[in-house]
Amino acid sequence: MKKTFYKTVSRTLIAALFSSIVFSFAGCTQKAVVKADDTAYVILMMTDLHLEDDEGYQKRAFRTMDELVDLSKPDLIIVTGDVNDVFDRNDKIFKAFGEKMESYKIPWTFTFGNHDAQGSAWSKKDIADYLESLSYCKFEKGPEDVYGYGNNFFNVTDENGKIIQTIFTIDTSGPETGTHFVERSQIDWYTSAVRNIAVEVNGDPSKVVPSVMFSHIPMREYKEAYDEAEKNKEIVYGKRREKECPDDTEDELLETIVSLGSTKAYYCGHEHKNNYVVYKDGIRLSYGETCRHKWYIPSRGGLIVNVKKDGSITQQNVRRSSASRIYKISKEY
Q: Which secondary-structure segment (H or E) carries 45?
């Protein structure tokens, strides 16, 4: 059985080996992403694949995944839910997805979306059992006394083994389908983890280690944050192209994140057309780039999160229009 707590040592930087790679600038097309000299660890986020039980569709989606992995050369891949779009054969979908992810031979994990267990074949527990059985997948069901499946954290360490960044994943899906608020048990688990890591690294629960959080559903504060940023011309990146759809129940996640001072960025999917980045109370709120292959989606791609040697983060969007095979890689921001 895998442990809930992971220590992940960053890979040796290999950018110098790729002589064909050129520096990436916003709006320029590139063959790959260059790791900056101060980058310790690279996370690739993919979201909302919505795989269909159709060989042609899966081939197109898997090609996009292949291209994103090849471009970003990640140390960890996080898929933030809604892999499934077939409600009577989600077992078949997840087996195809799992085989594809394992083929990369790169550590990866997963957060549940509102559609993943929306089927008559596999329940959330069945999917969780399958994910735990895979070799490269670091997903765990998580503590039994905490709501949901996949409430996990992973630690990135420097060359001396010191923790420089923690990666949280949190379940925002319903008991089987639909959205769900972040329950008190999850908030207490997150709070305890942040403080325990601070004690391990710095000997003081108040001296927290930087962290990021990944889920499927946006926090309720996304809409307010975008409205404020739009009004003040402070949108960091991207656009709102559709209404935000968080769970209707209020929770205390953002307030807890702000009070603890560890998590600096929150990443989600769910809305396929949105890819914006804004700030709320000092926290970066980001949508990933969807991987769904549907005509109404203007672009598809992924999001790269770069963990720096000092524990700070930057990110880059990798996207292409639905009518193009050419990816654009943004500057780090």
A: strand 39-46
